[in-house]
Each structure stands twice: as structure tokens, then as C-alpha cells.
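re: ur question from yesterday

yeah so i grabbed the chain u mentioned. its 550 aa long if i counted rite. heres the sequnce exactly as i have it in my notes:
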Amino acid sequence: MSELRGVGIGLGVAHGPVARMAEPLPAPEDIASTRTPEEETARVSEAVAAVARELEARGAQAGGAARDVLEAQAMMAEDPTLAQEVSGRVTAGKTGEYAVFAAFASFRDTLSAMGGYLGERAADLDDIAQRVIARLRGLPAPGVPDPGHPFVLVATDLAPADTALLDLDKVLALVTSEGGPTSHTAILAREKLIVAVVGVAEAAGLADGETVIVDAAQGAVTTAPTAEQLEQATRRADERKASASAPLTPGALADGTAVPLLANLGKPGGAAEAVALGAEGVGLFRTEFLFLSSNQAPTVAEQRTAYTELLQAFPGKKVVVRALDAGADKPLAFLNDAHEENPALGLRGLRALRASEDILREQLTALAEADAAAEADLWVMAPMVSNVEETAYFVSLAREYGIKTAGVMVEVPSSALMADRVLAIADFASIGTNDLTQYTMAADRLLGSVASFQDPWHPAVLKLVKATADGGAAHGKPVGICGEAAADPLLAVVLVGLGATSLSMAPTALADVRATLLAHSLDDARRIAEAALAADDAASARAAAQAAAR
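ran it thru and got these C-alpha cells back, copy pasting raw so excuse formatting
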């Protein structure tokens, strides 16, 4: 028996035989084409269009976040810049297969160098290129194996197109050697309630057919398990199913301390599912969906309609809306599409909104009008606030439009370190742990080569969370968590122990977090948090918390 370590997604546990993803198609040879450039161009155009339509169809079938990801992939497949890159190589006499391979590889390297959201899209390009080349060769598209029985899927990483349509009657669990807690694989696994451990460096050594236990709660993959371990894993899985069907209750600790559990949402259409899964409100509503698919800002009326739909789904409940967070990984032609050497440190978030204040004013107008038409408790916060002056600017502007509760996102260390002064002005703060970890550790949160640094368990990140919570407590202001860290059940306990007053996460993570909080008192949470803070690194902080929790 041996135990391989990674990052677990949720609390699930499963066991079964391994089935590995097939290796990628071999790279095409750089040889001259026997067809005319016109013939090669026609072949490539047909293949690209077919792949794009297939991705769109998969997205429509999958729905949810998967649909958004796959629609984005389809758009990438037909990107005009890529088409020009391919055409240039075909005109030079290359085969369609090689032209696609080389053009996509070149584009991939460019995106990888940019980092952030665009850096993550680089991995998607590999999947698209493989699908187009397979189509050109008349071969099946690469994808998930089908050994004819339930299995544990092991892969380097999964393309969104594969994750979106996993057969959950066949795939018992997912193990990847790459990726972190904020990768698309992890996010989609959490959304689909797949037992998953990502970032398992030694996963390449797992062989087809061998039995393993995948324990997301411990972030471990056990090879050659004993009969007793298999029985225990089965029992835990059955207990988890039973607890998931228990009546929904408000988030609370074992001693009755209330910890509101809220939902992170990207579109109003996700509200019904969030309510069904027990969300007590919305802790983060991302407004980018209204802006990213357009060449111009949406009108006040268009925004008001979307915000009203959201607010009306949560009568009497808190709904926290984040003002447009554009820039870095989400450049907008009408806001901030100028080239920047390091866009993650450039004109993004509130900085970009101040540079185009009319867009912010229109958004606040729409939010105020939606608030008047609904009975929810609207809170509005500014993204990427880095100092006290920015806090005062946003709160003052929000008040001008009648927004009663105006706060800030704490995503950079400067805001956390100045939280006592920031929260003397803002009505609340919400900690975005994804970006806070990125900026604390100087590691792009979507770049695979530094994924090991992107761990919110790091004591440096936890200390900044505590500094923010202490700043809130000094002024009687709430401090919530809305990053992916809140969806990690044990880390959720630690965050409450550090002083967080609410937790917001993907709706599918609510059940596991609710159950874990109920197992610990506030004193327990503080003791577990202290154990994590005393560690030297993320791995030892997680281990110390696990030991303290036991």
C-alpha cells in the first residue's frame, strides 16, 4: 500500500479500478502536402467548423458552467487570428494537419506567456487542436476511455469538453497529475459532485486496472488498499449520501454560532439551483456575463433586467453583487484592451472602472433601480480595491446612487494589511481567496507550472485573512469569504476560526461545508485555525488542521 497526495475537491470518497486517458495523438510530420492549398484549406475549414459545432452541442447538453466553457472553446476554434496562422502555413505547402498543429502551438505559447485567464486557455487550445487533427485524419476524437465497467479516471488533466459530459454512472472518481483547486477540472468536478483529487504528481505511475481509493477529504489516493480500507471507504461514501439527503438547515457551528452559507453565481439563471441546495443568499454575483459577450457595454435597462431577476429570486435575503471586474484575464474592447506587459498587475478591477467611470455609474444606476423593484437585501462591492482612497471613492459613489450597503473585495495584500482603515469606511469586506493567494505567493493562479504555490492553505494567506477579519471586528463590520477556499470543508472551518462571518461558494459545495461546520464549535474552529497558522507551508498547515480537527 502507498498513499499519493494531491488537492481534494470536497469530502467524497470512492474506490475502483483505474482507467487512464489515452495518450495524445502523435504530432504530424512536417512534410509537403500532396494537395493544393485550396484543397487543404477546405479540409481544415470543414474540420474546424465540425469541431466547433460538436463543442457547442456538448455545451448545450451539459448546461451550467460547462456550457460557458465549451462555448468559449468553440469560439477559440474559429478565431480569425488562428485561421490566418493556419492559412499561412497551408499556402506555404504544409499539410492541413501540420498547419493546425503548428499554428495552434504557436498561439498556445503566446497565451501561456500572458498568464491569467488567457494562460489557462492555452491548455484548451491543445484539446481543440487534437480534435481538429483527429477529424482531418478520420480518427475518433481523443476522450474518456470506456472499459465497460465503472472506473477511476486518471489523466494528466481533463479538457473541459471531456469533464462536461462524464458519465457519472461509470466514472467513480477523478485523479489528475496537474491542476489546482481553481482549475477548470476542479471547478467542474465540484459542480458535478465528482469525487476528485487533482495535482497528484505521482498519478502517472498508476496502472490500468489497479484498484485505488480516492479520498478527496484527505487529498489522497491509496494504492493496493486492504479489504478493511475498502470497506471503510464504502461506509464513508454511504454515510455521505445519507447526510446529503438530510433536511437543509442554516449554516452553523456545533455550538449554534451562525455561519451564513451563500452561493457564488455567474448568471441569474443559477438562482433556483442555489436555493434548492440550501444557499441562504448570494455572497458573490459576478456581473461580467453581461459585458464579456459584447463589443459595447450593456445598457442600463439590460442590466436592470438581469439584476432584478437575480434579486427577486432571494426575497429578504442578502445578495452581494460585485461591480464589473474586467482587465487582466478579462479584457474588454470598450474598457481596457490596451496591451500590458503584466495585465494581472495592470488596469483591472476598480482601476479600470475609474478610468471609464461612466460604465461604473451606469452599473450603479441599474443596481439601484433593480433594488427598488425587489425585496432582497442588496450589497454592492468593488473589485480589486488596493488602498483606503479607493475604498472611500467607491463607497461615496455608491451612496450617491442610493446603494445602502457598499463594500470592497480584499484580493491584494495591501487591502488586508490596511483592513482596519479600509473597514472604517466600507460597510463590509469580502475576501477573494483565489486572487489573494495569487498576489501573496506571486504565482499566477491559472498557470500550471506554479500551481503548487496557488494554495490558500499557506499560512501567509491565512494571516492576511485574519488581519482582514480583525479589521472588521474592530469596527463591527462583516468579513465574508467568496473565493474557492470557502468550498474546502476543513479550510472553511479554519476561515471561521480566523474570524470570517460568512462563507460563499459554488452551490454544490454547500452540503459538505454545512456538515463539516456542524461537527465543530467556535472554540474548535479557533484552535484548528491556530494550528494551521503555526505551520511553515501550505501542506503542513493542512496536515496540522487535520490533526487538530481529529
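noticed a couple things. The chain has 22 helices and 16 strands. also Residues 261-549 form a domain with the TIM Barrel fold (CATH 3.20.20.60).
anyway ttyl
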